[in-house]
Amino acid sequence: MNCSSSAFSCCGVSPPVLANPRGQFTASCLTRTNQKAHFLGSKQFPRGIHNPANRASLRLSQREVIAFAGKQSWDIGRFAKTLFFFNGPPNPLKVVESILTSLTASAPTEAPKKMETSDVVLVTGATGGVGRRVVDVLRKKGLPVRVLARNEEKARKMLGPDVDLIIGDVTKGDTLDPKYFKGIKKVINAVSVIVGPKEGDTPDRQKYSQGIKFFEPEIKGPSPEMVEYLGMQNLLSAIKNSVGLSEGKLLFGFKGNLLGKFMWGALDDVVMGGVSESAFQIQPTGSETGEATGLFKGTVSTSNNGGFTSIRTKNFTVPEDLSAYDGVELRVKGDGRRYKLIIRTSYEWDTIGYTASFDTTKGEWQSVKIPFSSLIPVFRARTKLDAPPFDASYITAIQLMFSKFEYDGKLNPTFAEGQFDLPFSSIKAYLNEPITPRFVHVSSAGVTRPERPGLDLSKQPPAVRMNKELGSILTYKLKGEDLIRESGVPYTIVRPCALTEEPAGADLIFEQGDNITGKISREEVALICVAALESPSAVGKTFEVKSTVPFSEPFVIDPSNPPPEKDYEVYFKELKDGITGKEALEGTPAQV
């Protein structure tokens, strides 16, 4: 058998070690028939001779491991292959020396540095009527705000010279570099196509503020298609990695080509003179549903001061950014042992691994959630107090380990020499539950009505009647909504009726199905959007909202007796999933 054609080579795994009758171990794939072990420091390991005519079983039994304990030869070929599989390691002598000395290290006296988190809320369309009020509400709550605006001078004049500002335009995808959105986990999108009076407006847009009921409107600037649809595509593309997906981000699994993202290799105690051996394999029907699953299996031995096995991915070509998520979830079939998950954030081979141990239940499939906040920085079996906090935005490799050792000299209480196996069907990043909206979008009531069968347009607001004259504004708003609903991002879509400059505080009506007409203040919409960010009840909901005050009556408040603050959760809890108003279209799409 030649190494390049073996089943182990296809997975990037070192060839198996074979036992011979003299209690020695040799590699199954050698370039010469007599391969001698070399000196390592001051210790000489006994010679191991490969005899093709007398191959032992690929699996070592627990009896064999114990029988050969203390007398086993070290496979330097597997050692070298392991090191060079993982992207060019440091000096092997330094690695072995440091690992051996670390095993007797004492426990640290201080806690490692905590992972940094971000609560920055991005507001897009921040210089508009709703957007600037959203910024004001967030600031009053003490939340950090970043804004996306096209005009820097206008944004700083309106929002303050020190505003955290991204200069960009949703209609121009090349201005929305995803690196600008790093650290942002929540977005309130108030971007909207600009509608104004044909005859012009006052410098402070008084006519516009009254609503298009009071003037003959036209589109100012980019078209509804550019802003509401293509702009939404660009914005979602820019922020998707930052805000995360409701179902999490699948890192390893058997959907699509995700298996191909990871190249696993064995990283066992051979790097410190041991003889334990593990491998990554694929079981075509091994999952709980009879589909394919990964398998971490091997034989662990404490001979030659060893006692651990692991499989580790090669460094990712591009680091994985999981900063939107709260941890990693593994789906495993347990064997009653304690394993480790190690996540690396450096392209260096021998560096800190952010580590967590997890217990398994024998014979049962289980989901193991490991919060990023629980990861311990470990370097050569010692906790590193001075390590930088875990950076979920720059993950370079993942490792699974079964070891005799925990950290800082502590032992694994479930450790036993011999064979083990850990099937795992998926590894994914997850959002903590209950999930709250990460993307709140301000749309408009009426988006499903222009082509609704049997609708009397004469009784509808001007935007519905004039949809085509205004560049199919509502049709493209609906298309933009659909992009959000299909994106996988946890969302809320708010559809206000006609917007006014009146103060917040009027009684409200929340509806679904896109049927109501009326008015609502921009200030109230801003309050609703900010409240939605914290409400699990608002996730995945689309709703319309208006005040109970008729158009013909102005709403004013007495400053000496303001209305009480609303508990918007009362409204959110009554909302239903899956109601958008498109149900009334009966499968007839709006014509553009």
Strand arrangement within the widest β-sheet reads: 5-4-3-6-22-23-27-25
Give the fraction of residues assigned to helices: 10-25%
Number of strands: 27
Strand percent estimate: 15-25%
In whole angstroms, how far apart are the ends?
65 Å
Radius of gyration: 31 Å
- Runs in which pLDDT lies below 50 for 5 or more consecutive residues are 1-70, 588-592
Walk me through the structure.
This protein has 12 helices and 27 strands. Mean pLDDT is 83; it is low at 1-70 and 588-592. The chain has helices at 7-10, 62-67, 76-85, 92-102, 131-140, 152-159, 206-210, 224-243, 462-465, 473-487, 522-532, 569-572, and strands at 17-19, 25-27, 120-124, 145-149, 164-167, 184-189, 194-197, 217-220, 249-252, 264-266, 277-283, 293-300, 308-313, 327-333, 338-344, 353-359, 365-371, 376-379, 382-383, 397-403, 418-430, 439-442, 491-496, 498-500, 508-511, 519-521, 541-547. It has an 8-stranded mixed sheet with strand order 5-4-3-6-22-23-27-25, sandwiched between helices. Strands 10-13-20-15-16-18-19 form a 7-stranded antiparallel sheet, with no helix packed on it. Strand 4 (145-149), helix 6 and strand 5 form a beta-alpha-beta unit. The termini are far apart. It is of the alpha/beta class and 592 residues long.
Brief account:
The chain is an alpha/beta fold and 592 residues long. The protein has twelve helices and 27 strands.
